[in-house]
Design brief:
Layout (H helix, E strand, L loop, with lengths): L2 E5 L6 H10 L4 E4 L14 H13 L5 E4 L11 H18 L5 E5 L2 E2 L5 H17 L6 E4 L7 E2 L3 H11 L4 E6 H6 L8 H11 L5 E6 L1 E2 L10 E2 L8 H8 L8 E4 L5 H13 L1
Parallel strand pairs: 1-2, 1-12, 2-3, 3-4, 4-6, 6-8, 8-9, 9-12
Antiparallel strand pairs: 5-7, 10-11
The structure holds fe (iii) ion (2 copies) and zinc ion.
């Protein structure tokens, strides 16, 4: 059985966030380690992090996921903004390491016209810098919808980053809405997409799933999430992901447009699938 959870706010502290997740029936959770639109992060509260870790142990939580800010673009054209993004990555990874079993997932970036090769080079440079500080957390590259100049819409693009960095700490998070929007038919042929993932990236690199329906059809390159069963993918296809034997050990995070009762409902549906 995978671990199921949802995206929550850590604004009341990590321990409170874990308690809220558990009350929804979750045994994993995802959160922004800093305000997703802003750049400031609160000073880390070590006691709160330790309490959260103890609670996760008691409740049998699997790995949890910190999600880098959407605004953090490691391959933007402006060198100053790029250096700032790289600094945010390094800081985020440092504080992610405070929480036991916490993964750090982020959107690889948009090359904004610099080209794929240059974008990959810049992302790899930032990752190498952040990993040189020896954080213990693993880093996940998220599969993207391929909107605009976004890198990561094809598995091959994530492979280029893995190859450039060559770190045992660098892995991948698969977002069902994003790969669908990117043109991978995980509704019609889940096994085919997983096989392609395995061939290009290696299934051992898959460390987390974002479980979302999509408001748009296959290959739309839009990235608009829908509640399970309310989008173009459908509940049946998403429960096939949730129950797939090759994915049974992974944290699966809902990023669906829900309030807390909605998340509890969707987690319940997945557990019964
Ligand atoms: Fe994401
Ligand atoms: Fe996602
Ligand atoms: Zn998305």
């Amino acid at each position: 059985m995978p671990y199921f959870g949802c995206h929550l706010s850590p604004s009341g502290g990590y321990a409170a966030m874990v308690r809220t997740a558990a009350s929804l029936g979750a045994d994993t959770v995802q959160f922004f380690p800093r305000n997703p639109r802003g750049s400031r992060a609160k000073a880390p509260d070590l006691e709160d992090a330790a309490q959260a870790g103890a609670l996760m142990g008691e409740r049998g939580f699997g790995p949890i996921v910190a999600h880098g800010a959407y605004t953090m673009n490691l391959c933007t054209w402006d060198p100053e903004a790029r250096a700032f993004a790289a600094q945010v990555l390094t800081e985020d990874l440092g504080r992610t390491t405070l929480l036991p079993g916490c993964l750090y997932n982020f959107h690889p970036g948009s090359h904004v016209g610099q080209g794929l090769q240059e974008g990959v080079r810049q992302i790899a440079a930032a990752l190498e810098g952040a990993l040189a500080a020896e954080p213990t957390a693993c880093v996940l590259l998220e599969t993207m919808a391929g909107k605009g100049t976004e890198i990561g819409g094809r598995f091959q693009e994530l492979r280029m980053i893995l190859d450039a960095v060559q770190s045992p700490q660098l892995h991948v998070c698969l977002d069902t809405c994003h790969v669908w929007d990117g043109g991978y038919d995980i509704v019609g042929c889940l096994d085919g997409v997983l096989e392609e993932f395995d061939q290009v990236l290696g299934l051992d690199h898959l460390r987390a799933i974002h479980l979302n329906d999509s408001k748009n059809p296959l290959g739309a390159h839009k990235d608009r999430h829908a509640c399970l069963g309310e989008g173009c993918m459908g509940l049946e296809a998403l429960t096939r992901v949730a129950t797939h034997p090759a994915l049974g050990h992974l944290p699966m995070i809902l990023e669906t447009p829900n309030d807390l009762p909605g998340y509890a409902r969707e987690i319940g549906i997945l557990r019964q699938a």
